[in-house]
Amino acid sequence: MPAIEQSRILIVATDGFEQSELFQPRQKLIDAGAKVTLASPATDPIQGMQHDEKGDTITPDMTLESVKIEDYDGLILPGGVANPDTLRTNERAVRIVRDFVASGKPVAAICHGPWLLVEADCVDGKTVTSWPSVRTDLANAGARVVDQEVVVDGNLITSRNPDDIPAFVDAFKKAVTQAAAVPA
Questions:
Q1: Which one of 14, 86, 161, 182 has the minimum C-beta count within 10 Å?
Q2: Which active-site residues does the annotation give?
Q3: pLDDT tens-digit readout, 46-73
Q4: How high does pLDDT run on average in the chain?
Q5: Coil, strand or helix: which one is 120?
């Protein structure tokens, strides 16, 4: 894998994503030189939320069906309530998450985003964090749940809420860079 300035990052989201949890990591990664691609079930604009109010929309670059795991160096799963709740019922989204985790590439989920990790059966025995209402689901799926701004366990990076975005992005960038240093 290349260094962060040459990396290819995938973000998976749909309607109801928490605006700051998609736009801020995306921009920070672009500013660092990464090529960031947004995938969604369709390529129609998706609706962001600022907590419970509608925010900005963004047009996905591609559909989930077009995603090839080998084309990317890392995956980001933004939160928002509706976004991961919808995606965890989408077989292709769950497969993408499962395949990324199995590949050993960094997978970062924030706020409600770890619901996708639960659905993909990727948290058993892992230490993670999330928004408080998701923690019981994580524990029931076998995770050790802690309350920290960012948790890194293997290739999983999790955070609690928008306040944690700086630490979340820094941990993700570090994980992509460290993965780049490991011989394939």
A1: 182
A2: 112
A3: 999 999 999 999 999 999 999 999 999 9
A4: 96
A5: coil
Contact criterion met (CB below 8 Å) for 25 and 32? no
Q: Please write the tens of the pLDDT for every residue from 6-22.
A: 999 999 999 999 999 99
- d(C-alpha 3, C-alpha 5), whole Å: 6
One-letter amino acid of 89 = T
Location of structure tokens 């670059």: 61
Residue 58 gets which letter from DSSP? E
CA angle 103, 134, 106 (to 5 degrees): 20
Q: What is the mean pLDDT of residues 138-163?
A: 98
Residue 141: what are its φ and ψ, rounded to 5°? -90, 5
Rounded Cα distance, 21 and 36, in Å: 14
Predicted pLDDT of residue 1:
47
Q: 152 in helix, strand or coil?
A: strand
| Residue showing tokens 């989408």 | 90
Which residues contact residue 122 at a Cβ distance below 8 angstroms, ignoring those fewer than 6 apart?
97, 98, 101, 107, 156
Q: How far apart are CA 127 and CA 149, in angstroms?
A: 13
State the Cα–Cα distance between residues 183 and 126, nearest whole angstrom: 24
Contact (CB, 8 A) for 99 and 116: no
Check if the beta carbon of residue 141 is closer than 8 Å to that of residue 123: yes
